[in-house]
Design a protein that fits this description.
eight-stranded mixed sheet, EC 2.3.1.1, L-amino-acid N-acetyltransferase activity, Acyl_CoA_acyltransferase, GNAT_dom, AceGlu_kinase-like_sf, disordered N terminus, about 400 residues
Length: about 400
């Protein structure tokens, strides 16, 4: 695991400070002499691995030597990202002094590489570095990611001097605020970094960049929060923002192996009377209508969609989120996914029966209706003794674009 920004590569006990990055002068760029500012030229992967194999903690400084012995100062982000890419690290942890928020002011806890890329593009006008990231990614043909072709993005990696480098056009800073062409690494500096007017968009671009290059996950955490590093690494939802290229959390059709996970989530709601009690046999028979949200091998949310094609409607049922993940928008994501699946099946409206959660569904576009609005086939099976209320929602075409068998990365 790689941990930045004055980089730590660790196994267990001993610390060793080593010079593992060969650097060269940046020189004169656009008439400006950068003096003893360096650029990463090469990462000594074998030396780092040797230290790690001997149970040492490797501390990588942003200071390094040129081939002629000069001591040069490099951008810490460039050193961290270059080492992470060269080492093919599982994780890169970036400690900053704030958090990344969505448009509603909520902390973003998880983003797939695709979601991060889309957000960077959406906000690119706010950041010169983000705009440069978009330019380089598009020039290298990495936009194939949006077509779901992850393998082609992996093939964009180059091999320089015997180690795996990043894309041939590395990102960095120019006059404190832009981009330069290097062999590896992503540098952040200048006025943009100091002002923080873009809300850590530069760090997000760096994270997406190294994920494109093969690093599995990048964690951007707020170092001003006590214990944030431990919370990020050892709790399910963490304390910061994680950007991942692998399947960390996804929404998919349930399988028989998910039965125990679904049962664990819905049992408390059945015991309290919020959900209708279902036996394991009933759950198994309905399992092909269930969708689950999986995170690190655990089911954290579920919902069911029972289509009535002749009436072009579908029933939403058993929406449930695990207790530790409530309040983080998982229910909204799952309902949105179910609506997209319904539209892909040609359905025009969704209905549901509820006793305790009407307000939640009303806030999400459902309105109360009479029992006559429910398909006759379903009305025959309603347990009237529960006194359920009936709600319906007309679907909007803007939600189309997902097939029932798609796997959505979150």
């Amino acid at each position: 695991m790689v941990w930045g920004l004055n980089l730590f590569l660790f196994q267990e006990h001993m610390f060793k400070l080593i010079s593992c990055c060969q650097k060269e002068r940046r020189g004169v760029v656009n008439g400006i002499d950068y003096g003893f500012t360096g650029e990463v030229k090469k990462v000594d992967v074998s030396r780092i691995r040797e230290r790690l194999d001997s149970d040492s903690i490797v501390v990588v400084s942003n200071m390094g030597y040129s081939s002629s012995g000069e001591v040069l100062n490099c951008n810490t982000y460039e050193v961290a990202t270059a080492c992470a890419l060269a080492m093919e690290a599982d994780k890169l942890v970036c400690i900053v002094d704030g958090q990344i928020f969505d448009e509603h002011g909520r902390v973003i806890h998880f983003m797939s590489i695709e979601e991060a890329d889309l957000l960077i593009r959406k906000r690119a006008k706010q950041s010169d570095i983000a705009a440069s990231y978009v330019k380089v990614v598009d020039e290298e043909g990495i936009n194939s990611l949006h077509k779901g072709d992850y393998k082609s993005s992996l093939n964009a990696r180059a091999h320089v001097n015997g180690y795996a480098a990043s894309f041939q056009n590395g990102l960095g800073f120019n006059n404190g605020n832009g981009i330069y062409s290097g062999e590896q690494g992503f540098a952040i500096g200048g006025e943009e970094r100091l002002s923080r007017s873009n809300g850590y968009l530069s760090e997000l671009a760096a994270a997406a960049y190294v994920c494109h290059g093969g690093v599995q996950r990048v964690h951007i955490i707020d170092g001003t929060v006590d214990g944030s590093l431990l919370l990020e690494l050892f709790t399910r939802d963490g304390a910061g923002t994680m950007i991942a290229r692998d399947v960390y959390e996804g929404t998919r059709i349930a399988t028989a192996e998910d039965l125990s996970g679904i049962r664990k989530i819905i049992r408390p709601l059945e015991d309290s009377g919020v959900l209708v009690r279902r036996t394991d046999t009933e759950l198994l028979e309905a399992l092909n209508s269930f969708y689950v949200v999986e995170r690190d091998g655990s089911i954290i949310a579920c919902a069911a969609l029972f289509p009535f094609p002749e009436e072009k409607s579908g029933e939403v049922a058993a929406i449930a989120v695990s207790e530790e993940c409530r309040g983080r928008g998982q229910g909204d994501k799952l309902l949105d996914y179910v609506e997209k699946v319904a539209l892909s099946l040609g359905l025009e409206k969704l209905f549901l029966l509820t006793t305790r959660t009407a307000d939640w569904f009303v806030r999400r576009g459902f309105s109360e209706c009479s029992i006559e609005s429910i398909p006759e086939q379903r009305r025959k099976r309603i347990n009237l003794s529960r006194g359920s209320k009936y709600y319906i929602k007309q679907l909007q075409p803007k939600h189309a674009g997902v097939t029932a068998n798609n796997f959505i990365i979150r």
